[in-house]
Amino acid sequence: MPARALDLYYKHAGTADDSQWPRGELGLPKPWREHEPLDDEVTIHSKFRCIDCGKNTHGGEYYMVHDSVWAASGIAPHGGMLCLGCLETRIGRELRPDDFSGIFPSVEVWQRHVAERERPL
Questions:
Q1: What confidence tens digit (pLDDT) does each residue in 20-50 have?
Q2: Spatial separation of the C-alpha atoms in residues 8 and 20, rounded to whole Å
Q3: Interacting residues of 27 by C-beta distance below 8 A, sequence separation 6+
Q4: Residues of 70-96 as b/e, b for ≥16 C-beta within 10 angstroms?
Q5: 60: Cβ–Cβ under 8 A, 6 or more apart, which residues?
Q6: Which long-range contacts (C-beta less than 8 Å, at least 24 apart) are formed by 92-97?
Q7: Distance, CA of 80 to CA of 51 (rounded, Å)
Q8: Is the dihedral of CA 25, 31, 37, 43 positive or negative?
Q9: Considering only CA atoms, which of 78, 84, 76 is closest in space to residue 60?
Q10: In Å, how far from its chain's centre is CA 9?
């Protein structure tokens, strides 16, 4: 029986059409798809959400900062994503261009972030 269950799993795991999955047959779960969204808003994968505010960081707000800046945020390496505003809040200062390493936010996102930051409360 275990060999039959594995055969069925692998047969259907690569199937894009979920209707072909034999639901309940041998009690196997639906195959997990690596890029399947895990939250309610299907357009934003959970790994790209800011861990503080939930904002999508993938659309132009994907960036890398130097290790010392990230360490000041209190987040472990690979511990999640922060939007620019939440990173500034965590480190207690405004970000500067020399804080970034390797990957910079898009120009449009950076300009929008600076404008929002300078807007009076």
A1: 544 445 555 555 444 444 444 455 567 788 8
A2: 11
A3: none
A4: bebbebeeeeebbbbbbbbebbeeebe
A5: 105, 106, 108, 109
A6: 95/65, 95/69
A7: 6
A8: negative
A9: 84
A10: 28
